């Protein structure tokens, strides 16, 4: 559980530095550059100042943010994210989506993520893939795929679509 003491527990900083390991030679130690990248990743997810905390003392949401910081520190060319917003408060959900949008726009990274909120998918993604229970798929631009008609069929419940400043939201009818 979350409160179990681990005699071999890692700190937040040790954990986020593991994201830098693919960039190190076999016998290399992390450099000050790696530490700077790790600290900026922690700051980006709101964990600045928690470097020496043991990970078993973190809440579920803090652990999720630490996992995201570790991934950001790795700076891969493609991010594959399975529900990256799980366990996060709304403010952290938005911050995480902004971080990955920045990775895509500023660093040219590819970002593929599973999201269950069509409004957030419409706001932050370029393309959407809908997969229904029978394995039927539809891929296209978010404008073409994320519509009340298609989502109503997918969820089996009628949704109404609203637009404001180019952003879509969907509410049960």
Q: How are the SSEs ordered, and which strands pair?
A:
Elements: H1 12-17, H2 32-44, H3 60-74, E1 78-82, H4 90-107, E2 110-114, H5 118-124, E3 127-131, E4 137-141, H6 142-145, H7 148-155, E5 159-164, E6 167-172
What does the main sheet amount to? 2 strands, parallel
> How much helix, percentage-wise, in residues?
40-55%
Distance between the termini: 40 Å
Question: Which class do the helix and strand fractions yield?
Answer: alpha+beta
Order of SSEs, N→C?
A: HHHEHEHEEHHEE
Estimated share of beta-strand residues: 15-25%
Helix count, per DSSP?
A: 7
What gyration radius follows from the Cα positions, in whole Å? 19 Å
Strand order across the largest sheet? 1-2
Query: Looking at the structure, what is the overall shape?
Result: elongated
| Count of extended strands | 6
Low-confidence stretches: none
Question: What is this structure, in a nutshell?
Answer:
The chain is α+β, with helices and mostly antiparallel strands and 173 residues long. 41% of the residues lie in helices and 18% in strands.
